[in-house]
Design a protein that fits this description.
Shape: elongated
CATH superfamily of the largest domain: FAD/NAD(P)-binding domain
Largest sheet: 6 strands, mixed
Number of domains: 2
Number of strands: 14
Helix content: 10-25%
CATH architecture of the largest domain: 3-Layer(bba) Sandwich
CATH topology of the largest domain: FAD/NAD(P)-binding domain
Bound molecules: flavin-adenine dinucleotide
Low-confidence stretches: none
Radius of gyration: 23 Å
Structural class: alpha/beta
Distance between the termini: 42 Å
């Protein structure tokens, strides 16, 4: 990137890439510290599929988009700018400062860069699963467990560590089935099998190929051998 194309006249002390909870929190403190700050946010937070966020003191049950809208209002009070765009490149110049290129073509200059881009969930490739994520296909019992308590749970094993996930979710329901899916039964130790049995977790070998949905609700999973198992929530 040519330095001449960079918007140095409007240089920032800090560019924060990512305007989720982390980036906005950083921007709020920077704004209050009178740092000239720009937030660049692509607007795709990780928890977007969820209707409500839980377990966040004073905001329990709030829609995730609402939390971020309040955060954006708060940073604006301190003069922090926000642009809806994606940073596609960041290059450190000879002076140790940054030229950040945005997808729309603009390049902004900053003395410091905060990377708060979050992460993306890699979901198991099972037909229909991605569309249920954050609703009744769940990854975090601390976020969603209360809402599905005492329902019929499935846990989709992707590694032998999924045994621990299955044991953990028995805190929220005693009706738990571990679908071995990508895990060979031989990978489970005698100790794993003993602990699963003691916790009342059923173990079903075989690959899950599809989640079954009726009336916009998860009702089960189907295995490669065609058998269907009724379940109301699936942990991945
Ligand atoms: C389905 C689901 C439900 C959840 N529920 C809860 C809950 O109930 N309670 C709880 O405490 N936690 C919950 N979490 C976890 C919570 O979502 C994360 O901890 C939180 O979103 C992390 O915030 P973050 O700012 O690091 O990342 P994110 O919220 O993912 O924000 C990152 C932002 O950066 C942007 N971005 C990424 N790359 C670029 C780029 N190159 N340029 C510009 N912008 C970029 C993204 O578009 C996004 O807006 C849940 C997670 C999921 C997946």
């Amino acid at each position: 990137m040519e330095a001449a194309e960079t918007d140095r006249a409007g240089a920032y002390e800090v560019v924060v890439v990512g305007g989720g909870a982390a980036g906005l929190s950083a921007a709020l403190v920077l704004g209050r510290a009178r740092r000239r700050t720009l937030v660049v946010d692509a607007g795709e937070p990780r928890n977007a599929p969820s209707a409500h966020l839980q377990g966040f003191l004073s905001r329990d049950g709030m829609p995730p988009a609402e939390l971020l809208a309040v955060g954006r209002e708060e940073i604006a009070r301190y003069g922090v700018e926000l642009v809806r765009d994606r940073a596609v490149d960041a290059v450190r110049d000879a002076g140790g400062e940054f030229d950040v290129t945005l997808a729309a073509g603009r390049t902004v200059h900053a003395r410091h860069l905060v990377v708060a881009t979050g992460l993306e969930d890699e979901l198991p490739k099972v037909v229909g699963l991605a569309g249920r994520f954050g609703r009744d296909v769940l990854h975090c019992p601390y976020c969603h467990g209360w809402e599905v308590r005492d329902q019929a749970f499935g846990v989709l094993a992707t590694t032998a560590l999924s045994v621990h996930q299955a044991l953990m979710v028995t805190q929220w329901s005693k009706d738990v089935t571990l679908f071995l899916h990508e895990v060979d039964e031989a990978e489970l130790s005698d100790d794993d099998l003993r602990r699963l049995a003691a916790a009342g977790v059923a173990v079903v070998p075989g690959r899950v190929t599809e989640v079954v949905v009726e009336d916009d609700r998860l009702t089960g999973v189907r295995l490669a051998d065609g058998t269907a198992h009724a379940r109301e929530a699936l942990f991945v």
